[in-house]
Design brief:
Blueprint (H helix, E strand, L loop, with lengths): L5 E3 L2 E3 L3 E3 L21 E7 L12 E4 L2 E4 L8 H12 L5 E6 L4 H10 L7 E5 L16 H14 L4 E4 L7 H10 L4 E4 L3 E4 L1 E2 L4 E2 L5 E5 L4 H12 L6 E4 L5 H10 L3 E4 L2 H4 L3 H15 L14
Parallel strand pairs: 3-16, 4-7, 7-8, 8-9, 9-10, 10-15, 15-16
Antiparallel strand pairs: 1-2, 5-6, 6-14, 11-14, 12-13
C-alpha cells in the first residue's frame, strides 16, 4: 500500500499533482478528458476583481521546446468566477486553488476578501503582474514589493496563501525569503520566463505584445534548479512547476524539494497529462518500494 498524500499549509491533497494556472481554465473544458477527482488540486486561471480583456492577438506562438504566451490574464472577474466556476469544481473530490491577479495591492485584497467566504482551499497570488503604481515593474521582481504585497494579502485572506514567484530575477532565493518574511504559507515556482519570437518573413514580432511568457519542456532544468535553491533557502512548502510533461519530470521536482507539482503547457498537447503523471508517480513508488511519497521530497541534497 502506498501513500501519495501531501499537505500544504494544513490542506491535505490526495496526491502531489496539480494543474498550473492559465493552462487548465477552471477545469470544465478538461473534465471530458480527465477525472478531476484524481487530481490533488485544480489551480484555476487567474481571477481579478473586475473582468480583464487580455492582450491583443496574436498572443500565442510555438517555439522550440515550448511556447510563448501573452494572453494578458484574460478573465471574467471574481463575481462570474464565484457564481459559475466554483460550483462546478465542488462537484469533484479535489482541492480548489484560486490564482489571484491584480495591478495594485488593492486589487489583490479585493479578490481575496471576496473569496473569503467561498469554499476554496488555497489562494495562489500571481505576483508576476505589473505594479501600475510603481511604474509597471512586476511585484515579483522587487524583494521589498514581494514582502509588502505578501503581508498585505495575508492580513486579508481567510485561506492560506501561496506566492507564485517570477523567475525573471537575479536570485530566486531572495524572492522566496521575502515571501516567507511577509507571511506566505507556501510558494510556487517558476512562472514563465520572458521571451520573444520574430517572424523573419513579415519582419515583425510574432506576438502583438512583442514579448511573452516562455513555458514548456525547455525551461524545466531552470525550474528544477530554482526549486532546489528555494527549498534550501526557506522552510515553506514549495509547489514546483515549469516544463513538467511526465511522471519522471514531476519526480525530479519532488526530489529537488517540491512538496507538490503543477502541470501546465503539457495539458495543451496531452489533455490527459495530469492523470498520467499521478499514475506514473504511483508506479514509480511501487517499483522502488517507496511507501510514502513524502520520502521523495527533498531527497536529493
Amino acid at each position: 500500500m502506498i501513500d501519495t498524500r501531501v499537505t500544504i499549509a494544513g490542506v491535505e491533497l490526495k496526491n502531489p499533482v496539480m494543474t498550473a494556472s492559465g493552462t487548465f481554465g477552471s477545469g470544465e473544458e478538461y473534465s471530458e478528458f480527465v477525472d478531476l477527482s484524481r487530481l490533488g488540486a485544480v489551480v484555476t486561471k487567474g481571477v481579478a476583481n473586475v473582468p480583464w480583456p487580455g492582450n491583443p492577438t496574436p498572443r500565442v506562438a510555438e517555439v522550440y521546446g515550448g511556447m510563448l504566451n501573452a494572453i494578458g490574464l484574460q478573465n471574467p472577474g471574481v463575481d462570474v468566477f464565484a457564481r459559475r466556476d466554483i460550483p462546478f469544481l465542488k462537484r469533484y473530490d479535489t482541492k480548489i486553488v484560486v490564482n489571484v491577479c491584480g495591478r495594485t495591492a488593492e486589487d489583490y485584497i479585493d479578490v481575496v476578501e471576496r473569496l473569503g467566504d467561498e469554499p476554496v482551499d488555497l489562494l495562489e497570488i500571481n505576483i508576476s503582474c505589473p505594479n501600475v503604481k510603481e511604474g509597471g515593474i512586476a511585484f515579483g521582481q522587487d524583494p521589498k514589493a514581494v514582502e509588502d504585497i505578501t503581508r498585505q494579502v495575508k492580513s486579508h485572506a481567510r485561506q492560506p496563501i501561496i506566492m507564485k514567484l517570477s523567475p525573471n530575477v537575479t536570485d530566486i532565493t531572495v524572492m522566496a525569503k521575502a515571501a516567507e518574511a511577509g507571511g506566505a504559507d507556501a510558494v510556487s515556482l517558476i512562472n514563465t520566463l520572458t521571451g520573444m519570437k520574430i517572424d523573419i518573413h513579415k519582419r515583425t514580432f510574432t506576438l502583438a505584445n512583442k514579448t511573452g511568457g516562455m513555458s514548456g519542456p525547455a525551461i524545466k532544468p531552470i525550474a528544477v534548479r530554482m526549486v532546489y535553491q528555494a527549498a534550501n533557502a526557506v522552510k515553506l512548502p514549495i509547489i514546483g512547476m515549469g516544463g513538467i510533461a511526465t511522471a519522471e519530470d514531476a519526480i525530479e521536482f519532488l526530489l529537488a524539494g517540491a512538496t507538490a507539482v503543477s502541470v501546465g503547457t503539457a495539458n495543451f498537447f496531452n489533455p490527459c497529462a495530469t492523470v498520467e503523471i499521478v499514475e506514473g508517480i504511483e508506479n514509480y513508488m511501487k517499483k522502488y518500494g517507496i511507501a510514502d511519497v513524502k520520502e521523495l521530497i527533498g531527497a536529493v541534497r
